[in-house]
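@channel sequence for tomorrow's demo:
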Amino acid sequence: MKLVAQLEEFLHSAKSTPSRNDLGIRDWRILVHEASALSLGIKENSPGSVYTPPSYRQGESGDIYIIWEDGRLTQAQVQVPPQHGASAYWQMQLEEWRQASYEDPEGADIPLPEPLPIVAVEDREIERILAGEDELLFEQLAKLLQDIQPGINLNASIQAGWGYRHVRNSKGLAVSYQQSQYALSYSFDSLVGSGFAKRRLIRPEEWDNLWKRTKIYYKALQDNAPEINAKTVVVFSPSVVGSLLGQFIFPNLIGQSILEGQSAFKADEFKANKLVFHEDLDLYVDPLRPLEWGSYLVTPEGVPAQKTVLIKNGSLQTPILRIKDAKKWGASPTGVSSGTSGLYLESRQEKPWEEVLSGIEDGILILSVLGMHTQNSASGDYSLSAPQSLRILKGKIVGKRDVKLSGNFFKDLAFSETILGQEEMETKPYLVVRTGVQNM
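structure tokens (generated this afternoon):
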């Protein structure tokens, strides 16, 4: 019997007929993942070496949340029980869960079932790969090695995953759906690389565009470019923008942090729709985009996925609210999962990246930064080294410079001269800002 079925049957039984007075369960919810994953890799031009052997993994795991009759709470991870003695195993687990319970007067409720959105989160081609038709991934690995130029050390990883996601609770929620994942990443000499991560396979034209861009960046990194100056604008690449959003914006929009006074924003600022960024900017979470990495049907708490506008026209709209935070906030939970993969930043003044690039007379493109994890999230201030950056002159990438950045990301997003450039394959934009930058 699968993990989700065993858990569900056991919890129903334990709730209806508790074995001891202190083991009475008021409500519960479970989240179970069934997953198969295939991984291939290349280490310094060597495929399938001791460092990157092909691997296939299959397993089940889960999380449980219990509200006991006396109001105490338990959260725990769940593993597949032994084949023999499952009943005794679950009884022992129940007693351990009770021992690990804690008090929280404002603990979360268990939601009633609601209608779910329709969103594509599975690619049947990936299902076939995990069922044994895996030639495509090995062909992609071979193509990487075939196309790499002599003298370049290539590191790469290709992963495909397929499985089921089950969400159950004691109030009748019973959701099971299939989902897939595909991720490609590679780097040249550990200097520059590209990545692709969605719930579908990469298309040939996307593969070619990524490879072409990486070759252009790698070639530019071989030549030194003129030093930057007071007129140089900074261009954050999409990957760096994602890191900046994850460090400075997402944590400050979490309801719990706001309610506990640990955010850059205050609760009354949301109620007043305070203007915090430029009025052209919108920030929202959209888990309903087909086959995107950050798309899903329901959160682990059992809240249906929905598009949630966090900032509109530069003004605060709503924080990210879990069920517990929503109760204290006096609002509905937002249906937003954790992480920034489904976080989108847009501007009504944005342009295609190629058009933005052609208009930059004097700039520096930041491909990666060092020290992001050390920055103070609530202040927005950053001081970062960018040892692999590309000089832009008259709309062209002309070589590399090592630079150091210092500024404030909140001010970057509020400045009227900040420009967003969108590229079709990227979920995050290029961001052109006026910030502190100096030669290293």
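heads up for whoever presents: Residues 17 and 77 are 23 Å apart (CA to CA).
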